[in-house]
Amino acid sequence: MIPERRGPSTGAAAxxxxxxxxxxxxxxxGVVAGDWPTGWTxxxxxxxxTAVGVxxxxxxxxxxxxxxxxxxxxxxxxxxxxDTVTGAAARGRSSFVAAxxxxxxxxxxxxxxxxxxxxxxxxxxxxxxxxxxxxxxxPSTSARPTAASSLDAAPAVPWxxxxxxxxxxxxxxxxxxGPTVAQGRIDGLFAYDAADGSVRWxxxxxxxxxxxxxxxxxEEGIGLVAHGRHEKPCATLLAVRTSDGKxxxxxKLGGTGLVGNALAVGGTTAVTAxxxxxxxxxxxxxxxxxxxxxPKGCLPLAxxxxxxxxxxxxxxxxxxxxxxxxxxxxxxxxTRDLPIESTATASVVSVAPAVVAVDEADARGTHAxxxxxxxGAPTASVPLSGPxxxxxxxxxxxxGRTVRPLVRDGLLITFAERNAMVPDRIVAYSLKDGRKxxxxxxxxxxMALAAEPDGRVAYLGSDASVTLLDxxxxxxxxxxxxDTAELPPISIAPELLPxxxxxxxxxxxxxxxxxAAFALR
Length: 521
Description:
Elements: H1 7-32, H2 39-68, H3 79-115, E1 160-161, E2 173-177, E3 180-185, E4 188-193, E5 199-204, E6 209-214, E7 222-229, E8 236-241, E9 247-252, E10 258-266, E11 269-274, E12 277-282, E13 288-293, E14 298-305, E15 309-316, E16 319-326, E17 332-338, E18 344-350, E19 354-360, E20 367-372, E21 378-383, E22 385-386, E23 389-391, E24 406-408, E25 411-417, E26 425-430, E27 436-441, E28 446-451, E29 457-461, E30 466-469, E31 476-480, E32 494-499, E33 502-507, E34 517-520
Antiparallel strand pairs: 1-34, 2-3, 3-4, 4-5, 6-7, 7-8, 8-9, 10-11, 11-12, 12-13, 14-15, 15-16, 16-17, 18-19, 19-20, 20-21, 22-23, 23-25, 24-25, 25-26, 26-27, 28-29, 29-30, 30-31, 32-33, 33-34
């Protein structure tokens, strides 16, 4: 007796079972993950299952042919039996050929799938790989990162600039320059391309000197910075062209050097308070245009300027006063005594309209934002601490968080700390009478405040969201929240700068090696 032939059918069945199991597991994993196979994945799965079905059919036909032939050749079959066996064998061979063709097509499809695996089955409609956070650039301050050409098409965090300097190093300010942002770091002034974070230009501080002051704004394409040595006066003044970082001129300041951060650009005039004197120079050449020595018994506290007016706060004995000077000539336009009867700190918040923040040593004295009209008459007084909480003010003024308030459309807009020790409210006051115009509460901490080019007010939340408010009502207009699970950490003193297509965040204090800067789309 010849043994029954089971090799081909058994092997085919085993192979089919394995393939069918693999395909079933693949499909099952897709279902569990909540996403059915698509694209080439779906095609390959369908072809594999088809090939499995044809193979099983071929195996069944081969088994039937074997069974009908009695398990092997016979010497005494009739013609009818012979025809039956021959037909069954033919059907088995046809099914086997069909299975081979089906498997060949499936293997070919799998090969094409493997060669194009970076295609539609691994990416969503926006081209971002699924199952992974959106890629972000990893630039240094000197290398160009691999990022998109504009923030509109970039991932949520298209680039970051790594931390620089030592722990607790603190920057001194920044400039928003359209497609570029300039950051005043301890090691110099660095301008980043807003699209990819590359350094467009830089003005490094000299060896053993640190950047110690920066003008609040730039005008006519020029800004001011100053640097000095450790425990020495901030005594080297530079004018920097913002288009390319060229130093237009440099001056050594005598005596006690610069007074605080008292430097500003008004039109084509650079104005500084230095060594008991206010001086004005040409921003192009550095040539002195005028000077105003402080009167006997007086010291300059703060100043700011625009193209036509310079506001100067002076401490004279136990009192203080605010002066308006012509930026081009230094001529005094008006003066106003401030409600001060002890030593004070002060900051010019706005030149036009005139708004200053003052905080005197006397606990029962004046601690407020003060507003004035164009002739110096008082218009508003907003306490630094009141029903809305502790208000944020410029550095050195008051007990709240350091921030430069916004002044627009007759309103003073700043942060407020209520029950918590961190600001969580944005509040606006009328500069006509000092009354609250509106308040906007945030669920988390408010980190930085900025004015949008279209007139809206923007603030940075601790979750890296940017909320845009209607400046007239304080109502939320838009919330921009990065669509990514991984966000760069925000330091305790960030700055928010609007740029084309998004925003740039500058971490001005290095607390835990936070990035010096990063972009948000």
